[in-house]
Design a protein that fits this description.
The complex is a heterodimer. In chain A, 42% of the residues lie in helices and 22% in strands. Chain A is α/β, with parallel strands linked by helices. In chain B, β1 and β2 form a beta hairpin. The chains are: A alpha/beta, B alpha+beta. Chain A: Pfam families: Response_reg, Trans_reg_C.
Chain lengths: 224, 446
């Protein structure tokens, strides 16, 4: 998978590159709209991550232009401008997703995978997890043919952990994924523990779930 | 009360007072005028009598007798002349009753004493005043009618003139004070008037409005810029920390520190997010075109928060009317509003407590949602400052004191009035009331 990161903040661009390289993507960087155009003309990309706040051109115009050059790519808009109109315009112009800054790199990867899944058009997206099968398309966790019966939130949590398997996820990262859009008053989310407890309870009723590890003082991790 | 009404009322009342005073004083005035002219008449008569006596001698009247008296047919005038031993009445004019042929009549009487051929005489000339006072009634009546008509006439003229004079003020109030909905779209146009005061008022208002608009635009730009300028470094920090967390060779202590840093950064992020949210709401950057059903929304919210209630064994009961729909609102903002309120009801509840969500459709068409908890309650003195930013009473609790400020901004944006009813130690009921124009009810709309 080839990714073009168009982002004028070098610090940001380099971190994204670092993360995506580890996740197995090939990355190119562009810090201006001009550089981005050159990169796009040179080769096809699977993903184009576009920051709207570029110094030399309005991000939405870059998107319009990019859609003509790289027709096949999936576009994710990244912006700190936070204007609602931007989001709507961006999606109207054919962006596949929109992530307001600051976002979690894990969230970015999860959105990219969701887009890939959607575009691949696979009917059932099955992932093995210990003795369980996780169906990412109809959002169920199965033991054999039996639905374990996870709630919506519990499934969200489990699939997010699974997506980021073998990485420690903090409670904050998990709660941001689940309650991201809401400006509630809590910055300490021990509520995640309740969900994890429920997931463990429901799944161990069928088979051991020791792949789900608690990392003391940090959060949780799925080891596979 | 409107200025025009006040001016009209004042003018009417003052005119009425003047007229009433004038009519009340009228008899007195008429009497004064009448006495004045009667006095002159009597003096004239006396002079005539004196000149007759001088020219023709006293016997012209007395003809040998010691007294002389004469009165007119209707007894409205009389004259008497008599020899007197001594003067018992000085030269006076007075009002007194006299009995003439059995009739007691009020007279204006002139008494004059004089000496003739070494004898003292007294002359008395009287003129009846009953004829004068009988005019008082009709005169008062006429005055009342005439003045009443004059008042009506002047009032009509004044009213239309004042209306014309005050028209610029009316225009100022209409165009500058009532109609403009903040934020103002364009600079307001000056009104046409020759009245200096209004010109001054209008110019001042225009300059104020222009300044508010400028400040507002500047704040809007600041919000957008601040959002970008603050969010970008936060994003860089966050991504750096996330990458750090993924390094394989970290020990537990380092991981713990990174997790703590991320937690703190998240706190900063949420504060900036909340402040931007409040600022955007106050700048009216959210469309109000959605409709929402309270029952459905509460179900979604309580599902989100179910685990928090489970954790503290809090019982929830919801009794909402399914037929109510709230229209022309922003769905996401109201979701946030009720989410924060219910979240607070959980957070400040006691373990094993209850939360009851109910509603009421009032006869005037307004609609209230009640969220009642059995929590720690709020001291009456703290309720007023509850919605202030960064106001935290329970410092041991998690949170940064913006949740209720967000609630307040959203409520104000939707003209929702919030009411807090709390008994410390027993619980709190927060009610959110929507105006009738936002409510449709299935039974009414068919």
């Amino acid at each position: 998978m080839k990714v073009l990161i168009i982002e004028d903040e070098r610090g940001m661009a380099l971190e994204m590159e670092d993360f995506l390289l580890k996740a197995g993507y090939l990355c190119d960087l562009a810090f201006t709209a001009r550089q981005a155009r050159q990169q796009m003309e040179q080769g096809p990309y699977d993903f184009i991550l576009l920051d709207l706040g570029l110094p030399d051109m309005d991000g939405l115009m870059v998107l319009e232009e990019a859609k003509k050059i790289c027709r096949e790519a999936s576009y994710i808009i990244l912006t700190a401008r936070g204007k609602l109109e931007d989001r709507i315009k961006g999606l109207d112009l054919g962006a596949d997703d929109y992530l307001p800054k600051p976002f979690s790199l894990l969230e970015l990867q999860s959105r990219m995978q969701a887009i890939s899944r959607r575009k691949s058009g696979l009917k059932d997206n099955l992932v093995l997890l210990g003795d369980f099968t996780i169906n990412l398309s109809n959002r169920t966790a199965l033991y054999g043919n039996t639905d374990v019966g996870l709630s919506k939130k519990e499934f969200d949590l489990l699939s997010y952990l699974l997506l980021n398997k073998n990485r420690p996820l903090t409670r904050m990262q998990l709660s941001e994924h689940i309650w991201g859009g809401l400006s509630d008053d809590d910055y300490d989310s021990n509520y995640i523990d309740v969900h994890i407890k429920n997931i463990r309870k429901k799944m161990t009723a069928y088979a051991p779930a020791d792949w789900l590890q608690t990392i003391r003082g940090i959060g949780y991790k799925i080891n596979l | 009360m409107k200025l025009l009404t006040k001016i009209t009322l004042t003018s009417t009342l003052s005119k009425l007072a003047t007229v009433v005073l004038f009519i009340a004083l009228l008899p007195f005035l008429i009497n004064r005028v009448a006495f004045q002219s009667t006095n002159n008449l009597l003096k004239l008569q006396a002079r005539k009598v004196m000149s007759n006596i001088k020219n023709n001698g006293i016997d012209y009247y007395l003809q040998g007798d010691s007294t002389y008296g004469s009165y007119t047919l209707l007894k409205d005038e009389y004259i008497s002349l008599e020899k007197a031993k001594h003067i018992y009445t000085a030269d006076t004019i007075q009002t007194a009753p006299r009995i003439i042929e059995g009739d007691t009549v009020q007279y204006r009487i002139l008494n004059q004493a004089f000496e003739y051929n070494n004898h003292l005489y007294e002359l008395e000339i009287g003129r009846s005043i009953t004829s004068i006072s009988q005019y008082n009634g009709p005169l008062q009546k006429i005055a009342f009618y005439v003045l009443g008509m004059l008042i009506m006439l002047t009032l009509l003229i004044e009213l239309s003139l004042t209306r014309i004079l005050l028209k610029p003020l009316q225009t100022i109030i209409q165009t500058k004070l009532i109609n403009p909905v903040f934020p103002f779209k364009d600079a307001p146009a000056p009104i046409h008037t020759t009245t200096d005061d209004f010109q001054h008022l209008d110019a001042t208002l225009i300059s104020l409005m222009t300044r508010i608009k400028e400040d507002f635009d500047r704040e809007r730009a600041f919000t957008s810029n601040a959002s970008h300028e603050l969010m970008t470094p936060i994003s860089i920090l966050q991504t750096k920390m996330e990458n750090l967390l993924l390094l394989n060779n970290l020990d537990e202590a380092a991981l713990g520190k990174i997790a703590e840093m991320m937690k703190t950064l998240n706190r900063l992020k949420k504060i900036v997010h909340s402040l931007l949210l409040i600022s955007r709401i106050e700048n009216a950057q959210y469309a109000k075109q959605d409709c929402m059903q309270p029952q459905q929304m509460m179900a979604e919210i309580t599902e989100e928060l179910l685990h928090r209630m489970e954790q503290r064994n809090i019982q929830l009961s919801v009794a909402l009317q399914p037929s109510v729909t709230i229209i022309n609102v922003n769905h996401d903002l109201l979701f946030q509003l009720f989410y924060n309120l219910i979240n607070n009801a959980i957070r400040y509840n006691k373990n094993n407590g209850t939360i009851h969500i109910s509603d009421a459709l009032h006869t005037n068409g307004s609609y209230t949602v009640f969220i009642k908890d059995t929590g720690i309650g709020i001291e009456a003195a703290d309720i007023a400052t509850l919605f202030n930013r960064f106001q935290k009473k329970h410092t041991t609790e998690e949170g940064y004191g913006l949740g209720l400020s967000i609630v307040k901004s959203i409520a104000d944006y939707h003209a929702v009035s919030l009411h807090i009813d709390s008994v410390p130690g027993t619980g709190t009921t927060i009610s959110a009331t929507f105006l009738p124009i936002f409510i449709t009810h299935a039974h009414l709309s068919g």
